[in-house]
TrEMBL record:
Span of domain Protein kinase: 335-533
Gene Ontology terms, MF aspect: ATP binding; protein kinase activity
Pfam families: Pkinase (PF00069)
Name of the protein described by the UniProt record: 1738_t:CDS:1
InterPro entries, alphabetized: Kinase-like_dom_sf (IPR011009), Prot_kinase_dom (IPR000719)
């Protein structure tokens, strides 16, 4: 055996060791050449010992440690379903009842005027945005004023939240970070994010809200350094108030967890208002101690690791090392990563090659977190098999799992994302937009004729390839017979084409009526046809 990569692949190494060795030889080509002169003189055991000896222990340990921290933070990421984040913390974290009245000193005298002004909490089940949120934000703002914490700021989302953004309904933070807390989206490392629902008796909404609080805590506590080591949060509908205390337990890299303490539900009363005041006062004191340089005992005082891990650096290491995929046949392939294309709700996507098979410019999709009962990759594999005869649909090259057990899919159909194509070509004329839409319309008609909907027609899921435009990402593709209203599902696909027109032509998603008021000619006729359907 004379090739180091073949030795790494075939001999007895752990996944972590293979990753570290590939990185080592990529970064040290002279060592690769020296080692390959020695390999033919060694038996397998000697080769394993030789290669392991080349690893710098401290570098190897740091790489593995960084990877574990990165995975820990991924489990709490915004792209995950909020309720599933809360379930994950309940299953793997340290969840306790927070006896808040033994920890926080209520400030009853400070809230008399507040409670008298806002004595009647809104009824549950009303408009969350128009009723619950304004009431709760006004209460918190007035309490901050009454406890005379003039260096604290209270802001709301002002209706600026976009889909999938980490965007609290109420944020409490230092006034010095006004610009960062009021931008869209806000910088959540600079304040405490609180969440408002319209009915906390709805368990699904309560679980979702707690998951959102964990996401806000992740953004706050993973700053380098964090403003304070403890995140104090609140979930409320105005009538009921529940308080949480969140910490990241980072001392033991092999036992990373979230410490999540949640109080009982408190009905809106002067006592509840006094607890809110006490909580805000505690946060202010923590900020003051951190600013003055005073340190408190903290469970995440790990000086060997800075909590803001660079995802870019980790992705760069994947690009250098590649990924091993175990196929359903039991065989393994080594996939070389060319670049990172993006990360969605459940999957990370790479441009990739399989040199051993002569495959260039393929698309590798790996499931990194699962938000639905059915794996998105499995859904895509099923759909692509059913649509395999269509030339406008990606072809499956390989399907299998990573060595860590995550579903993986390799397809052809690499191309230029529509967004970057638009950036390269500047202003796009109506004729070109119409030809683009015709390409996508033709593809959708074929998909529908085969009994499927695409389910996620959006500008991010369109590529340009060989002068034509195609839909990609079939993770939400669904057989028509599974839809309660198949016709409406088809119209929804076509509606996605109209949204694409709005983004290309006017730079934003627009309603049918808005598009009709601005478009002319063939594009207007197309939108009118979809609206009438």
């Amino acid at each position: 055996m004379s090739n180091v990569y073949e030795a790494i692949k075939s001999l007895n190494f752990t996944i972590e060791e293979r990753t570290a060795l590939r990185t080592f030889f990529i970064n040290n080509p002279e060592k690769k050449a020296e080692t390959e002169l020695i390999l033919p003189t060694c038996n397998d055991e000697e080769v394993v010992a030789l290669l392991k000896g080349l690893l710098k222990p401290e570098q190897y340990i740091k790489e593995i440690k960084d990877l574990k921290y990165h995975i820990f933070y991924l489990e709490l990421a915004n792209t995950r379903n909020s309720a599933s984040v809360y379930r994950h913390v309940r299953e793997r974290g340290d969840v306790q009842l927070w006896k808040i009245e033994e920890d926080i000193t209520p400030l009853e005298e400070a809230v008399n005027d507040v409670f008298n002004q806002y004595r009647n909490a809104p009824a549950q089940g009303l408009s969350e945005i128009n009723i619950n949120q304004p009431f709760c934000k006004n209460v918190v703002s007035e309490i901050v004023n009454q406890v005379e914490r003039n260096d604290l700021l209270v802001v709301g989302d002002n209706g600026g939240r976009r889909e999938d953004e980490v965007f609290p309904d109420i944020i409490i933070g230092p006034v010095g970070f006004y610009a960062k807390l009021t931008k869209n989206p806000p910088d959540l490392s600079k304040g405490l994010g609180w969440e408002v629902k319209n009915n906390l008796n709805d368990k699904s909404k309560a679980s979702e809200g707690k998951g959102q609080l964990i996401k806000y805590a992740r953004a706050y506590l993973s700053a380098d350094p964090p403003l304070t080591s403890i995140f104090y949060g609140c979930l409320t509908d105005g009538k009921l108030w529940q308080f949480v205390k969140i910490q990241l337990m980072l001392d033991d890299v092999n036992d990373l967890k979230v410490k999540f303490e949640e109080s009982l539900n408190y009905e809106w009363s002067k006592r509840t208002a006094s607890l809110i005041a006490g909580l805000i006062n505690r946060y202010h004191n923590d900020l003051s101690m951190r600013a003055s340089g005073e340190k408190k005992e903290s469970p995440n005082n790990d000086e060997t690791f800075k909590s803001s891990i660079s995802s870019e650096n980790l992705l760069a290491s994947f690009i250098e090392e590649g990924i091993d995929i175990r196929l359903s046949s039991g065989n393994c392939i080594h996939v070389q990563i060319t670049s990172h294309l993006g990360t969605g709700r459940e999957c990370t996507v790479f441009l990739a090659q399989v040199r051993d098979c002569g495959i260039k410019d393929a698309v590798l999709k790996i499931e990194v977190y699962k938000n639905t009962k059915i794996s998105q990759i499995y859904r895509e594999i099923s759909a692509l098999h059913s649509l395999g005869d269509l030339p406008c649909v990606p072809k499956i090259l390989f399907e299998g799992h990573t060595m860590g057990g995550s579903p993986a899919l390799l397809t052809d159909f690499a191309g230029q994302p529509l967004e970057s194509w638009i950036s390269d070509n500047g202003n796009i004329d109506d004729h070109t937009i119409f030809q683009l839409i015709l390409d996508l319309l033709s593809c959708l008609e074929k998909i529908h004729a085969y009994g499927y909907t695409h389910g996620d027609v959006a500008i991010r899921n369109v590529i340009q390839r060989n002068g034509h435009f195609y839909l990609i990402d079939f993770g939400l593709a669904t057989p028509l017979f599974l839809h309660s209203d198949p016709c409406q599902a088809i119209i929804q696909d076509y509606g996605g084409l109209c949204q694409i027109i709005g983004i290309i032509k006017f730079g934003e998603k627009m309603s049918f009526s808005e598009l009709m008021g601005k478009l002319k000619g063939e594009l207007r006729l197309f939108v009118a046809f979809i609206e009438d359907a």
